[in-house]
Design brief:
Length: 411
């Protein structure tokens, strides 16, 4: 039984069917995204339940695989537990079938960048590396191509870790832990406990790489059975690069190769991605920034003056944390989405605020208020699911709005 027909659910359904399993899929949505994913299901024998969940549909299942967005109190999970059906995540299924070595990366911020860079440095050492997981490419879509001697570099979220059983990465990396997803977890302790599951099955032959500058991560080291490697500040490198260098050292990759990768790295899409400069105004796509800390990082690395576009679905975050970085740099915040009133309240008295109904309106308003030399930074601090399918779609929409504006200004 697959719960959720997004990327990971689709990939897992196809993989398990190819191995001879009888597969059923249930999703309580019948959105355009779900309908498009139906076309990716490889076999008509796979049974589908769309637009609802029913208890009868899951009866008789031996295993339930839940997508990351499915919470532990969702009805299918409650019914599965009542019926004694094991509940696991998609990464658990793929890891059971994986003959390669797994390097798993988690944390509140920086996961995608570190995961991408690790794939690059492993390939520079003449090894095959599959980069997948929460980065947007499901583990189940890759695992059939992995052979012994290959590496899988896996971005893993707290949601995915909630339902692992035997998942055991050879190297686990925990970058940082800051308030996040407090719409799903009752408090920071619950969030931290979910993250700590990344090393729960490791033993003395495995490695746990931790941020020495994060007090919480330093404190959990005694709980792990694996070999602890702390990464610390290295002159000329940012924290993400320091984490990558620490893993590279474990893997025996030459430091020169690692530094060359850093030098030539162009960044990832939707993370501090410069889209266009229109009449002297820079537009920067940072749609990947779904936390306050990510937005703080972006603001700190951009010269003033900044017009900030932010907002989306609220995740229980305290937006006041952005104020120290934003004062004297952000001259206006243009807010969108469900969280715009909460963000406006947090910024009140410190930064002028305008509330827009759409992202397109926010782009046009920011340009109207900008002067040559200003930067318009789209760094939402929120998830995308109130208005978009994911942060990638949100980022693409921002870029389309900016490029449309650029064309209009040429006329």
């Amino acid at each position: 039984m697959i719960v959720g027909l997004a990327r990971s659910g689709t990939a897992c359904a196809n993989l398990l069917f190819s191995l001879g399993a009888q597969v059923r899929i249930t999703d309580n949505s019948d959105s355009a995204l779900i309908k498009s994913n139906l076309e990716k299901i490889n076999a008509p024998e796979i049974m589908l339940e769309m637009g609802r969940h029913t208890e009868d549909f899951i009866k008789g299942s031996d295993l339930m695989v839940v997508s990351p967005g499915v919470a532990g109190n969702a009805l299918p999970v409650v019914w599965a537990k009542k019926q004694g059906i094991a509940v696991v995540s998609e990464i658990e299924v793929a890891s059971m079938l994986c003959p390669g070595r797994i390097v798993a990366v988690t944390g509140s911020n920086g996961k995608t960048t570190v995961t991408t860079l690790l794939g690059e440095i492993i390939r520079s050492g003449k090894k095959r590396a599959f980069v997948c997981g929460n980065i947007g490419n499901p583990f189940c879509a890759c695992v059939s191509r992995v052979v012994e001697g290959d590496y899988v570099v896996l971005e893993v979220s707290s949601f995915q870790l909630e339902t692992i059983k035997d998942f055991k990465p050879k190297i686990a990396v925990m970058l940082n832990l800051t308030p996040n997803h407090l719409d799903r977890y009752n408090n920071m302790r619950e969030y931290q406990e979910a993250k700590k599951r990344i090393f729960m099955n490791q033993d003395k032959n495995d490695f746990l790489v931790l941020n020495a500058d994060d007090a919480f991560l330093e404190g959990i080291a005694p709980e792990a059975k694996s070999k602890i490697i702390f990464f610390d500040k290295i002159s000329g490198l940012n924290p993400n690069q320091c984490a990558v260098a620490a893993v590279g050292k474990i893997l025996g990759i030459e430091q020169k190769l690692i530094l060359d990768i850093f030098k030539n790295f162009k960044g990832i899409e939707h993370r501090l991605e410069e889209v266009a400069c229109i009449n002297g105004v820079r537009f920067i796509n940072d749609s990947k920034a779904t936390t306050v800390d990510s937005a703080i990082w972006a603001i700190s690395n951009i010269a003033p003056a900044i017009i900030l576009i932010a907002g989306g679905r609220h995740k229980g975050i305290d937006y006041r944390m952005v104020l120290d970085a934003a004062r004297n740099k952000v001259k206006q915040a243009i807010l969108i989405g469900e969280a715009k009133d909460k963000i406006a309240l947090a910024l009140a008295g410190s930064i002028p605020v305008y509330k827009a109904l759409t992202l397109d309106e926010a782009v046009r308003r920011s340009f109207a208020n900008a002067l040559p030399g200003d930067s318009v930074l789209f760094s939402p601090m929120c998830s995308s699911f109130d208005m978009f399918e994911d942060y990638q779609q949100r980022g693409r929409f921002f870029k389309q709005a900016v490029l449309k504006l650029a064309e209009q200004e040429k006329v």
